[in-house]
Design goal:
alpha+beta, four-stranded antiparallel beta sheet, three-stranded mixed beta sheet
């Protein structure tokens, strides 16, 4: 393309007068979380904390400045996802992964946007400059470019930059579960009928790592405790990933193409670092605390770590129907 696309991380532009996605001047706004989702599960008035726990917002108060074009594009995307949502797992599994990336990316980017605002304003009060490391600027800039595929001629070729898995899931009908890690660009979403996990910038390597387990899951409707464990595995794998995802980005007159380059081990340095069961058990206990399962229940002396996904001795997938826990 003859003109570079807007990148807010180049000059750290997070201003209510500029569209978060296109950078054009605007007075319009859109919610971070789709309005239909907040209405359906009635969580708009619930509060969400920022990462350092000192600031919180209601979900409905989280908004992004956007141009009319961007708002319309996300409304169109939302209509497609809402129609798929009505058809449960089959509907969501049939969606193109790029649509799920864009739909999820809206929420992850929105939360990231508020983290940026919060940090900028906090430093301003201290009389300090707001800066981001080169690595974070690059990571978030690439993520923003990928999200612009909704409105600009940005396309993905070859290997995709993400791992997105969709699976059947059993929840009580009124429960909506989601987790996010905006800094590491991760998201999970679960309702009665289906769940999905998205690592939005891992070049597919975490999905590849868990491929054997995902194959075992097929034809099973996961119990929520299994869903939480699966997300914990994806989350911790992202934490111990030792290589930065790289991309081949080419700009031509008719648009931009993005290709995720394969992540390969070099020398004696494996793709993933050491899997520390102590650290993983602590992370997992945070997700399982709703069931009263503590770290000490996960790691017991002379016993393999507790898992609801795989039998620790045979590695067989655990039938969700055999799990005697509420859902």
């Amino acid at each position: 393309m003859s003109q570079a696309l807007f990148n807010p991380f180049q000059d750290l532009i997070f201003d209510e007068h500029f569209c978060f996605l296109s950078g054009v001047l605007t007075t319009e706004k859109m919610t971070v979380f789709p309005q239909w989702l907040m209405d359906h599960f009635k969580f708009g008035n619930e509060r969400i904390e920022m990462m350092d726990k000192t600031k919180s917002y209601t979900y409905s108060d989280l908004t992004l400045p956007c141009s009319p074009e961007v708002k319309l594009a996300f409304e169109g995307l939302g209509t497609k996802v809402q129609a798929a949502y009505i058809n449960g797992f089959e509907g969501m599994a049939a969606l193109d992964e790029e649509l799920l990336f864009q739909w999820t990316g809206r929420m992850v980017y929105g939360l990231l946007y508020y983290e940026m605002l919060y940090e900028r304003d906090r430093l301003l009060r201290l009389g300090e400059d707001f800066v981001l490391s080169t690595a974070l600027r690059e990571r978030f800039g690439h993520f923003h470019l990928m999200l612009q595929s909704l409105i600009e001629p940005v396309s993905f070729v070859g290997k995709k930059p993400w791992s997105i898995v969709v699976f059947p899931l059993k929840y009580s009908s009124d429960i909506f579960s989601y987790r996010d890690d905006a800094i590491n660009l991760m998201f999970s979403f679960g309702v009665n009928g289906f769940g999905f996990i998205a690592c939005l910038q891992d070049n597919g390597v975490i999905g590849d790592k868990e491929k054997e387990l995902l194959e075992k899951m097929k034809d099973h409707v996961l119990h929520p405790v299994q869903f939480e464990e699966l997300y914990a595995r994806f989350h911790y794998s992202d934490y111990i990933l030792q290589y930065k995802p790289q991309f081949k980005i080419e700009s031509e007159d008719d648009g931009i193409t993005i290709e995720a380059l394969p992540i390969e081990a070099k020398g004696n340095k494996p793709i993933f670092g050491f899997w520390d069961e102590d650290i993983f058990a602590q992370l997992l206990s945070n997700y399982w605390n709703v069931y009263g399962i503590e770290r000490e229940d996960i790691l017991k002396f002379q016993k393999p770590p507790l898992s609801f996904l795989e039998n620790p001795y045979t590695k067989d997938f655990i039938n969700p129907e055999s799990i005697d826990l509420p859902f």
